[in-house]
Design goal:
heterodimer; A: mainly alpha; about 0% strand; B: about 300 residues; Rossmann fold; 13 strands; about 30% strand
């Protein structure tokens, strides 16, 4: 008679080493095997934005603009956030392409999601350390010696290195996970799932707006936001990133590649 | 008796109203080369995706190395499946694929992979998106061969490969299979190209299995009889004819039957020529009839 190849004894041994760090770590390596995606391109975008900022500052100097006012104006530049849009796409592609590929190579969805999450943590930490440090350098050199401001902008450069690290890290993690998790919904339920998700989010937002408007609690909400401050706001972003990351883990377990 | 590597029972996969795989049963045995044959859209890739845990069945059971394949790392580590329409990570080049492969396949042979890259003249630094169809097939073929996975799937490996490359694949597969026996499942609709490679044939059409038999048996199961029209027609008069060709006073008729020694002698005495039927001819016949049958059913429903 025929026997199924895995003997019972062997199966027992396999169950014993269920925790396989190697099989999660190889996903991190797979995502980094072409380092331009996670590291090269974001820095090219940031570098490009930096060059443009420098040129604008130099032109403004040549035109004889007052340095103080220019520095103030550059605080409203969004250049420091320029890689974020690209990194949403990176999150999308990590699931749309690399997950399909890893499944062909015999990875489980579970290991893929865990490996990808580790990669996201790495990238977020790296970006946060770099940007928080660049803010400090920009301040120390008084705007790269020409009064230009790119990193010391928006909320950055107000509350120290640690705060800048924390805000960048939270935002970065959220951006990557939202891209990956939304794509996972597509990989599991296709267009139907995407539409359901879109309309659910819209309904939720409308319900919140209606609730706030109808109960006249607008000022209360505004003062709550003021009370939690930027620190609290990015705390919410960080919590959302974690929630989306965990939800994605459960959705991806039955996702199917295209 | 060889061990069973995979077993499907009543396996069903539906996409909405469309039934891609319709309650099929089959087994894959250790150390054999299987041909998963059928027309475009017959369900070949779907079966492979179900066996590798990429898709989840809607009904029936599937067991690979003793377990459901989906999400079981101890099963999946023994499989290799590069789909014909495989998606690769953004901006990947073949060199990235081959660099990552040893992390996923414990039997990966880097020297063998490099020899194959040279044989196929694959430009490893060119981006996957820019590769030709044949070069893309070569990537899948190289991964499949060099991975030496105990259960390896080749999904339409011949797509776009030139004659030399097809020959290389054929030779390397047989050489390596002899040294490192494993179970190989090869899907294709280019049947004649692979006919001699296959040890077992699973023929599917419209999500159902039409034939699941040893390749040798299938090859010998039909005969073509050629000669003068009148003599041929007389010889095949009460037999199951599956193909008929005529040219002037000559005829060539294919019957779905094996002739015994006495009949062969009689045919020779009548001046008829006997020839074996190619797998392709046989399969065209089999899938052709089934197609007609189902269309009638659909019309009736």
């Amino acid at each position: 008679m025929t026997a199924v190849a895995t003997a019972a004894a062997e199966r027992g041994a396999l169950v014993a080493d269920r925790v396989r760090p190697g099989e999660i770590w190889r996903i991190v390596r797979l995502l980094a095997v072409n380092p331009t995606v996670f590291f090269g391109v974001p820095w090219m975008i940031l570098g490009g934005a930096w060059v443009v900022t420098m040129l604008i500052a130099l032109i403004a100097h040549a035109a004889g603009a007052p340095v103080d006012e220019m520095q103030e104006g550059m605080r409203y530049s969004w250049a420091v956030l320029s890689p974020q849009w690209y990194l949403v796409v990176v999150g999308v592609q990590a699931v749309a392409y690399t997950l399909s590929f890893a499944l062909g190579f015999g990875s489980t969805r579970r290991d893929y999601w865990l490996g990808m999450s580790i990669m996201f943590l790495f990238v977020s930490t790296e970006m946060a350390v770099a940007i928080a440090t660049l803010v400090q350098i920009e301040q120390a050199t008084d705007g790269w010696w020409i009064g230009a401001g790119m990193f010391d902008a928006l909320w950055y450069g107000q509350s120290g290195w640690l705060f800048d690290f924390y805000t960048t890290f939270s935002l970065q993690l959220f951006v990557l996970f939202i891209g990956a998790a939304v794509t996972t919904v597509y990989m599991r339920w296709r267009m139907k799932g995407m539409m359901t998700l879109l309309f659910s989010v819209l309904a939720l937002v409308l319900a919140a707006v209606a609730a706030i408007t109808l109960t006249g609690s607008g000022p209360a909400v505004a003062s709550w936001f003021a009370a939690i401050g930027l620190g609290g706001l990015f705390g919410i972003v960080l919590v959302l990133a974690v929630v989306v990351g965990i939800a994605g883990y459960f959705v991806v377990r039955r996702a199917t590649p295209r | 008796m060889t061990a069973t590597v995979a077993r499907a029972t009543g396996l069903t996969k539906r996409y909405g109203d469309f039934t891609a795989i319709d309650g099929v049963d089959f087994e894959l045995h250790e150390h054999r080369i299987y041909g998963l044959l059928g027309r475009n859209g017959a369900g070949k890739t779907t079966i492979m995706q179900l066996l590798t845990g990429q898709l989840f069945p809607n009904g029936g059971e599937i067991e690979v190395f003793g377990r459901t394949p989906a999400e079981h790392a101890d099963v999946l580590r023994r499989l290799c499946f590069i789909a014909e329409a495989q998606r690769y990570p953004e901006d990947f080049a073949p060199k990235h694929v081959f660099r990552a492969a040893p992390w996923f396949f414990e039997n990966w042979d880097q020297d063998f992979a490099e020899r194959l890259i040279a044989d196929f003249r694959l430009p490893v630094k060119r981006r996957i998106k820019k590769l030709s169809r044949g070069q893309l097939s070569a990537v899948g073929v190289i991964v499949g061969l060099a991975s030496r996975a105990p259960l390896t799937f080749f999904d339409e490996p011949y797509l776009g490969l030139d004659a030399v490359a097809r020959h290389i694949f054929y030779d390397r597969l047989l050489e390596d299979y002899a040294e490192h026996p494993r179970t190989i499942v090869l899907s294709t609709h280019l049947i004649d190209e692979v006919a001699n490679l296959l040890e077992h044939i699973i023929l599917i059409d419209q999500g159902r299995i039409l034939l699941d038999r040893d390749a040798e048996e299938v090859r010998g199961s039909a005969t073509t009889i050629a000669g003068a029209s009148a003599v041929v027609e007389q010889f095949v008069a009460d037999r199951l004819v599956i193909g008929r060709e005529r040219l002037g006073g000559l005829a060539s008729v294919t019957i779905d039957e094996r002739l015994d020694q006495a009949e062969r002698v009689r045919a020779a005495e009548l001046g008829l020529e006997l020839a074996p039927v190619s797998l392709q001819q046989l399969i065209v016949h089999l899938t052709g009839t089934d197609l007609a049958g189902t269309t009638e059913q659909e019309a009736a429903a």
